[in-house]
Amino acid sequence: MARLTLVRRADDRRLTDDEDWWRDATFYQVYVRSFADADGDGIGDLEGIRSRLGYLELLGVDALWLTPFFPSPMVDHGYDVSDPRAVDPLFGDLNAFDRLIADAHQRGLRVTIDVVPNHTSDRHEWFQEAVAAAPGSPERARYLFRDGSDFSGSRPPNNWTSTFGGPAWTRLPPKMNDAGQWYLHLFAPEQPDLNWDNPDVAADLERTLRFWLDRGVDGFRIDVAHGMAKPAGLPDMAHPIEVCPGLLGAEVVDPRFDADGVHDIHRMIRQVIDKYPARMAIGEIWVSDDAAFARYIRPDELHLGFNFRLLQADFDAVSVREAIERSLMAVQGSPAPATWTISNHDSVRPVTRYGGGEVGLARARALALVQLALPGPAYLYNGDELGLPNVELPDWALQDPVWKRSGRTERGRDGCRAPLPWQGSIPPYGFSLSPGTWLPVPGNWGGHTVEAQLEDPNSTLSLYRQALELRKGHNAFTGAELEWYGAPPGCLAFRRKGGGLVCGLNTSGAQVSMPLGQVLLSSGPLPPSGDVLPPDTAVWLV
Ligand code: GLC
User: Fold this and answer.
1) For residue 220, how far is its CA from the centre of ligand 1 (angstroms)?
2) In principle, which of 110, 182, 363, 405 could form an S-S bond with 164, CB 3.0–4.6 Å?
């Protein structure tokens, strides 16, 4: 298998051989709380990740994306950051981070991390200062404080809703000379939005980026990269959206997101990153309009944009093909390749989304082969390589703020965030020394563990390992363009122009004839005759 060559420079630990390593890399999202727990408190941590780097190397991914591990009250599990330049003691400390980066690089794995520039935690010292200060003060000007829209100040400044449910505004209690101003939070009330018109805010993000770049990170995932800037005057939403579970982008024009000013922020970010060789940034961009999406990946903005079309597609050939074609179209004329993902910590796991049980698993495996056949970077979510389903959690276990904010009508995202099963036959399957994990692990996951799957050639883990090895080492996987083949109803087939890999997918209920070629890999068993592709199956051929 082709490996990244490590080129060590005298001054640090970075991989420097390929400026554009991210163009066709396979990224693996580590949901830090749930990957591996080394200190036995039932919550994953940095040392836990370090202890499992051998697994990630074996799996064959190129780079990691670590979800936030910064000091945080954990209202939104780390996406409420109270200090962006430190490590929360739950997860370790800066030394643990440095050790993780050094060891990952030693193994040829790049490390990218989340940054959360749209908002802070309400425990961030800036917000604490703002609450203590008076309306109109410089402290308040770092956030979006406004007076109420009516005479008494008791109506919110506009009709914006929070992505997690309820109004996007919370009012401070009245004080002397202060009727009680409102502050904006597009997410939970504990996540106040920053005021990006304030130069302090940009300067602070720049400091944060440099801080981690200097420590050797290879890139960033920019949280809510379509947020940050807000339109002048904060105009009302034409159609307030109640709850947006899973944060799926709305199809309507939404003044809360994608304001023009956001692009200046991305230019600033790019200028910082460009001072460091071989680093990158990908933005979480929930915009439905292709032209709007393309603006984020102009040459002086983000290197990559998260593209959620495949994740949003049904298990249906027409829907999958449309998602692929639209994704490719959206990046045409921009320097960035399309990115591909079918899963993350905000969405229902593919096995469950595609129907659950054996059928759901077969379909998730098939979609994984489609994803990994496509040209450009692929983002995997930890546990998908084990075929994990979503977990049905009892009410008492739910922690996602969506649950509470929606008035307990939306169960939120905890179901895809359960701790990973590593070995053994009882929970928590080697994830932690402690039986009490932050989210309960199902009692029937013994067959899902890494240990149970590693030596089984038919396991989902083996499928991912083979797929990643081929994707990285086989010359069929070159060429940025696709050509589509005619395919029976419910099926699709494309060929990568260049290397010539053919990928076929059967989402119909019946077997169909196999596309021509020699089979490299299939997502499920093929009949011995070799001339048919069963339902819920994808195949790679050359
Ligand atoms: C992003 C994250 C999500 C988080 C939200 C607020 O969408 O992926 O998990 O809740 O931002 O920071």
Assistant:
1) 14
2) 405
Q: Is 284 a catalytic residue?
A: yes
Q: pLDDT tens digit string along 426-442? A: 999 999 999 999 999 99
Packing angle, helices 317-331 and 357-373, rounded to 10: 30
Residue 245 scores a pLDDT above 50: no
Convert the pLDDT of each residue in 321-359 to its tens digit: 999 999 999 999 999 999 999 999 999 999 999 999 999
Is any ligand 1 atom within 6 A of the Cβ of residue 187?
Answer: yes
Q: Half-sphere exposure (CA, 13 Å, Cβ side) for 421?
A: 28
User: Under a CB-based contact definition with an 8 Å cutoff, are residues 105 and 6 in contact?
Assistant: yes
- Please provide the size of the chain in residues: 542
- Phi and psi (nearest 5°) for 393? -100, 145
DSSP-assigned letters across all residues of 357-390:
HHHHHHHHHHHHHHHHHSSS-EEEETTGGGTPPP
Catalytic residue from among 24, 45, 218, 284: 284
Which residue in 80, 88, 204, 223 is the catalytic one? 223
Residue among 27, 33, 64 at smallest CA distance from 400: 33
CATH of 476-541, one of 2.40.170.20, 3.40.50.1220, 2.40.50.100, 2.60.40.1180: 2.60.40.1180
Q: Which of 33, 77, 223 to mutate to test the pocket of ligand 1 (most atoms within 8 A of CB)?
A: 223
User: Which residue among 65, 79, 399 has the greatest number of ligand 1 atoms within 8 angstroms of its CB, and so is best to mutate?
Assistant: 79
pLDDT of residue 7: 35
For residue 345, the ligand 1 atom closest to its alpha carbon is: 9
Query: What span, in angstroms and rounded, lies between the C-alpha atoms of 490 and 510?
Result: 9
Contact between residue 283 and residue 226 where contact means Cβ atoms under 8 Å apart: yes
The verdict on whether omega for the bond into residue 167 sits within 30 degrees of 0, i.e. cis, is: no
Q: How far is the CA of 306 from the centre of ligand 1 (A)?
A: 13
At residue 200, φ and ψ (nearest 5 deg) are -55, -35
Question: CA-to-CA distance for 38 and 433, rounded, in angstroms?
Answer: 8
Where in the chain are the domains? 476-541
Distance 146 CA to ligand 1 centre (A): 24
Those residues whose C-beta lies under 8 Å from the C-beta of residue 280, and which sit 6 or more positions away, are 22, 112, 218, 219, 220, 273, 303, 304
Nearest alpha-carbon partner for 121 in 168, 161, 83, 165: 83
What residues pair up with 115 in beta bridges, in sequence order? 222
